[in-house]
Every structure is written in C-alpha cells, then in structure tokens.
Model the fold of this input.
Amino acid sequence: QVRLVESGGGFMQAGESLSLFCVGTGVSGAIFRINTMAWYRQAPGKQRNLVATITADGNTNYADSAKGRFTISRDNAKNTVYLQMDNLKPEDTAVYYCHLPTFDYWGQGTQVTVSS
Done:
C-alpha cells in the first residue's frame, strides 16, 4: 500500500524557518523518481491550494505566495520530498499535504502554525 507521510510541522514565529518532509512508502524508487511531486496547503475554512511542484528532473514551480521564500527539493534515493520554508508569515498557517499527482496519492498532512 502506497503511503505518503509528512512530518516537520510545528508552531513557529513569523520570520522563522521550517522544513517539511514527505516520505513515500510502499512505492518503488523507480516509480517515485520518475514522477512529479507536489506540496499543497489548506488553511482553515479555505480550499486546498498548490504550493510547489518538482518534476522528476528537478524542475520546480511555485505559487506566487511561495516564490522567494519556499524551496521544494527531492532525494529520490530516500523517496523523500522536502519543503524548506523561510521567512514564515502568519498567512502560511495551514495543513501542508504531500501529493503524488500521477496516482492522486495524498499524505495525511502536517500542521504549520505561524504566530505574529
């Protein structure tokens, strides 16, 4: 069974940095490394929105809200995708989800709360 497991969320102060991790289990490395991976987030009462994507060959794309502050990366040897978030803002408060679009797999999410 394929699972995406996020971790790294927490309670932060504005301006701080935080790294999120997403590990794919039950999926072969061959499958993981050839697929685009994505991070989404969902704030309370709002829809889930795309934050960043990374293709198999490392090309990245970011939502405007994440540009210049967030960095998505991956380590295919570890079936892991990362989201480095710098200069956090209160509006970054949300549950962050890892997504494998090809198979529409989602993780359970990790909460990030940013206080001003």
